[in-house]
């Protein structure tokens, strides 16, 4: 069975559904926000590929401006796809420990500028051994845990130890520090709160940088921040890069970031109206997502909400007479695009209501 691929020029109303579309005007608006904000700033965007998984979209932000010319990936396999797609400055933000994956990282470093996040001795020593045996050199960036409670060092002294160790090992080069942070559940998301929390978390990363530099070790990269601190980070001296991801496509969990527009949506068709205020659509959780139980949102139809998401259908309920009938189309917004994008083979890029391009999602399923 071949993958459905609409022809260029196909009207939105004629697309086979369900279909994941990307609104090019909204996408380019989001990229222009970054390009304009960072145009005259020493801080630049390093867009995260885990949200998008498609080299052509990442190239669009780099061409629009505001970036340092490189990207992040979450996995070794994603990095391989991105290098094949012509992106050659990559920071892998998750720790890599398996010898075969470390060898793949070392191999990539011979054809691209590869930097790997590290937070412990064992993998660092193994990376050094493998990389030096292969005649490679891999950049090392220390992850600092600031709020996530997952990977990353917990103490400034530990960062200094690892930086010194990296400097003494062959096959690796110490490049800098990184961190990622999130707003606490239930936190206020207004601009003032974002700036207070963002500065506090990012300073934790900068404190590690300062301690390392106090030992005479150069720190070339401070890579931190994300969508909710895209405008905070440039106001903090010493921040080189922002690891933004959500801003490009947008998601309902970040709807307080109103500078950005929803670029990715899922088009569905009503297949049943069993009650006067209920409609059933032809998309389910095989194609949509509800991370943490947060259901998708109906786009642009007041009074209609998602009641449930099943394997292959979605149930909508209205607060009055259902405005949708059998055969009508509607658009859905996801709470998180990372896991939704990974369910699809392609983006159908739309402008002015017609298909302008179809982009394969080349890093789909790159778990290894």
Q: What report would you give on this structure?
A:
The protein is elongated, with a radius of gyration of 22 Å. The chain folds into two domains: 12-20 and 260-360, D-serine dehydratase-like domain (Lyase, Ornithine Decarboxylase, Chain A, domain 1, Beta Barrel); 24-249, TIM Barrel (Alpha-Beta Barrel). It has helices spanning 24-38, 55-64, 76-84, 99-109, 121-133, 156-168, 191-214, 246-249, 337-341; strands spanning 19-23, 44-48, 67-73, 89-92, 113-118, 138-143, 172-178, 221-224, 241-242, 264-275, 278-281, 297-298, 304-309, 314-318, 329-333, 346-351, 354-360. With 368 residues, the protein is α/β, with parallel strands linked by helices. Strands 1, 10, 11, 12, 13, 14, 15, 16 and 17 form a nine-stranded mixed beta sheet that branches.
> How many DSSP E strands?
17
How many domains, as an integer? 2
| Intertermini distance | 26 Å
Series of H and E elements: EHEHEHEHEHEHEHEEHEEEEEEHEE
Concise account of the structure shown:
This protein has about 375 residues and is α/β, with parallel strands linked by helices.
């Amino acid at each position: 069975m071949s993958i459905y691929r609409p022809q260029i020029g196909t009207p939105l109303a004629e697309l086979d559904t369900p279909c994941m579309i990307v609104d090019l005007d909204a996408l380019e608006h989001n990229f222009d926000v970054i390009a304009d904000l960072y145009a005259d700033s020493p801080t630049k965007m390093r867009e995260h590929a885990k949200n998008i998984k498609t080299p052509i979209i990442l190239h669009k932000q780099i061409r629009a401006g505001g970036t340092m010319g490189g990207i992040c990936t979450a996995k070794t396999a994603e990095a391989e796809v991105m290098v094949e797609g012509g992106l050659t400055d990559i920071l892998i933000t998750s720790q890599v420990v398996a010898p075969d994956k470390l060898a793949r990282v070392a191999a990539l470093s011979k054809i691209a500028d590869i930097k790997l996040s590290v937070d412990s001795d064992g993998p660092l020593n193994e990376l050094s051994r493998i990389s030096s045996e292969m005649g490679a050199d891999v950049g090392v960036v220390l992850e600092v845990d600031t709020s996530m409670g997952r990977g990353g060092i917990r103490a400034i002294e530990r960062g200094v130890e690892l930086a010194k160790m990296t400097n003494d090992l062959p096959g690796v080069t110490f490049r800098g520090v990184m961190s990622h942070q999130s707003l606490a559940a239930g936190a206020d998301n207004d601009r003032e709160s974002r700036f207070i929390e963002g500065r506090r978390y990012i300073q934790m990363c900068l404190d590690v940088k300062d301690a390392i530099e106090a030992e005479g070790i150069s720190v070339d990269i401070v890579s931190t921040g994300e969508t909710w601190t895209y405008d905070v980070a440039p106001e903090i001296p010493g921040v080189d890069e922002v690891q933004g991801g959500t801003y490009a496509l947008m998601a309902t969990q970040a709807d307080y970031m109103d500078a950005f527009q929803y670029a990715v949506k899922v088009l569905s068709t009503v297949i049943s109206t069993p009650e006067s205020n209920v409609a059933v659509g032809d998309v389910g959780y095989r194609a949509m997502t509800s991370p943490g139980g947060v259901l998708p949102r109906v786009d642009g139809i007041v009074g209609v909400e998602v009641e449930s998401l099943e394997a292959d259908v979605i149930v909508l309920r209205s607060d009055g007479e259902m405005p949708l009938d059998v055969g009508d189309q509607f658009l859905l917004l996801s709470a998180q695009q990372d896991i939704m994008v990974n369910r699809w083979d392609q983006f159908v890029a739309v402008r002015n209501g017609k298909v302008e391009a179809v982009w394969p999602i080349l890093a789909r399923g790159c778990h290894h």
